[in-house]
Amino acid sequence: MTATSEFALELKDLRKSFGRSEIIRGANLQVAHGERVAIIGPNGAGKSTLFNLISGRFAPTSGDVVLNGQRINGLPPYEINRRGLSRSFQITNIFPKLSVFENLRCGVLWSLGYKYTFLRFLSGLHDANARAEELMRMIHLDKKRDVLATNLTYAEQRALEIGITIAGGANVILLDEPTAGMSRSETKRFISLIREVTVGKTLLTVEHDMGVVFGLADKIAVVVYGEVIAFDTPEAVRANQRVQEAYLGSVVADNQAGGH
Ligand SMILES: Nc1ncnc2c1ncn2[C@@H]1O[C@H](COP(=O)(O)OP(=O)(O)OP(=O)(O)O)[C@@H](O)[C@H]1O
């Protein structure tokens, strides 16, 4: 997708209520093309709700979500996907009984299905195979080409999921706690993998692990009570007094106490 606007993603005074409780309370954010952003904040602050608003699972109560310069408020997820945003979930959505290659090929075909008529879709099958091979190399699973997804390690399954997420060439990628459940060494390798496969793309993650946040993000968005209270470089966010008071101080204390 070509960059037609200054920002890949903008949230403008975004609000979301469930019944009488307003969960997102006027969130604003401007993410530049190619930026890697981690969304952090206390439990219940509204991070997942923001992701759900951006990816189209929920429609906002008011305000705008702008993707590549186009308002996408209230569009269904597949339309938003077609416009260049792809999301992977914390819960894996790979097909366990298909091989690595077949899973990736499905991801490619699925994304082609939205972009092409049926005839072009058929002629695209050859391209789909080539793209699936390319993705397999990108996620370092080419040696596991014919292994069923169910027989991969957990970290490999998460890598496969990222491969499927980027298969369609979306320029904005949303990852929900991409390293959750991984060991420290797997996490380290996985951060490198995410960095590699998202070069030139805009990345948003919801993340609790501060090691991942500081290893991956160019910028951090801090969400507290449904508002983005800070959006800056990791160093600036770490030094931000308001963030310290509202959130980061307690996380650092938790980590020192052996929590997560
Ligand atoms: N579909 C829904 N209906 C009603 N309330 C909801 C719904 N989805 C989320 N909420 C509420 O919105 C608030 C924010 O939840 P959300 O999951 O977005 O927070 P979060 O920052 O992602 O939290 P965590 O870090 O614990 O995952 C919570 O109080 C939650 O109960």
When the domains are counted, the total is: 2
Biggest beta sheet summary: 6 strands, mixed
The ligands found in this model are:
adenosine-5'-triphosphate
Q: Helicity, in percent?
A: 40-55%
Query: What is the alpha-carbon Rg in Å?
Result: 19 Å
Counted beta strands: 10
The termini sit apart by: 37 Å
Unreliable spans: 256-260
In quaternary terms, these chains amount to single chain
Order of helices and strands: EEEHEEHEHHHHEHEHEEHH
Q: Which architecture name of the largest domain does CATH use?
A: 3-Layer(aba) Sandwich
Task: Describe the protein in words.
By secondary structure, the chain is α/β, with parallel strands linked by helices. The chain folds into two domains: 1-84 and 173-260, 3-Layer(aba) Sandwich (Rossmann fold); 94-169, no CATH class. The protein has ten helices and ten strands. The protein has helices at residues 47-55, 77-82, 100-115, 118-123, 125-138, 154-166, 184-197, 210-216, 234-239, 241-256, and strands at 7-18, 21-32, 36-40, 62-67, 70-71, 85-88, 172-176, 202-206, 219-224, 227-232. The strands form two sheets. A six-stranded mixed sheet has the order 6-7-8-3-9-10, with helices on both faces. The protein has a four-stranded antiparallel sheet with strand order 2-1-4-5, with helices on one face. Strand 9 and strand 10 (227-232) form a beta hairpin. The structure holds adenosine-5'-triphosphate. Adenosine-5'-triphosphate (ATP) is lined by residues 18, 23, 41, 43-49. Residues 18, 23, 41, 43-49 line the site of adenosine-5'-triphosphate.
